[in-house]
Each structure stands twice: as structure tokens, then as C-alpha cells.
UniProtKB/TrEMBL annotation:
Source species, domain of life: Bacteria
An example Gene Ontology molecular-function term: metal ion binding
Full protein name: DNA-3-methyladenine glycosylase I
Keywords: DNA damage, DNA repair, Glycosidase, Hydrolase, Metal-binding, Zinc
GO process annotations (BP): base-excision repair
SUPFAM superfamilies to which the protein is assigned, alphabetical: DNA-glycosylase
Amino acid sequence: MLARCGWVNDDPRYQAYHDLEWGVPEYDSRALFEKLCLDGQQAGLSWFTILCKIPAYRAAFADFNPQLVATFDESDVERLMLDRGIVRNRLKIRSVITNARAYLLMQEQGIEFSHWLWDFVGGEPVINRWPTLNEVPTSTSESEAMARALKKRGFSFVGGTICYAFMQATGMVNDHLLSCPRHPDHVNS
């Protein structure tokens, strides 16, 4: 019998995220930038907490427009520390600004963010075949390599575990369980 991956709760927002977004390959650089920043906000929290706050995050961070976010200064950090719609953690808020600046620097250097990220998985989704949640790793050598490379380029809140969650969410790695109707074995049949 097919059933959603065991980490999904009964909330319709979480189910829609699992069914329509998680594990679906994303190739748009700006969408990948947003997702990487949001995954960094998740550190120490559940993804569901951040998922419920995405509209507030988009409003707070100019729809994750790197050109705009990169101009934020300490007065913006203070303003965002008062925003009840987002996680009010100074380091996490600053990380989005830092990441926007790092993203723009890559653009200035002629590096296409999407291609650069997808190179960590050889440019194609890795399709895993996990029978149970206990077998799904929290990080891999690829996510650790991505984390090191992102940090070297000036990004923050991008450890190996965060990068693996990012890779799962953006379809670089498909970790839907074999028993899940969203696993490629079932979607493509």
C-alpha cells in the first residue's frame, strides 16, 4: 500500500508541500537562492515551522530578490528583529543578507548559481530507493562538499545537514520512500 513519506503530518500545507514541491527538481537560480535561505532559517527548528512562515519571509526579505536584500543594513536587521512573522534570530536574519551578497558576487563572476549547485550531483537528480525513514541520511559527502564550497564563497547557515535538506527539497536528491506515491517508481509508471 502506498502512503506519503512518514515525516508528513496531517496539515494540508505540509501535505501539499510534500506532494507538489519536495523532491521536484528546481533549476531556477533565484528559486534556489530563496530555498537555500529558507533552509538556513530551519536550523534547530522543524521545516514545518518555516513552511508556515514563508509568506512572512517573502514579505520581510523583498521576495528574496538578491539585489534588494544585499542592500539591507543594520537598520533593516533591527526592523526584522521586530517582525513576529519570521524567526527573530539575528544571525539567521544576517545570513540572508550575507547570502544575497555572496549570490551576487557569484553572478558578477559569471557563475550561474543553478548550474553550480547542480554540479554537486552531476547535473541530474539522484534517485534513492529508501524503504524506511531510518535509512535516509541527514547528510552525504555531496552535501558536505556543497556546504564547504558555499562557505568558501561567503554563504552562511549552510552546513552539510542544511545542504542535504536543500538538495532533497529542490529535487537534486529524491528521497521519497519506495512506499510513497511520489517516488519516481510510481510517478512515472
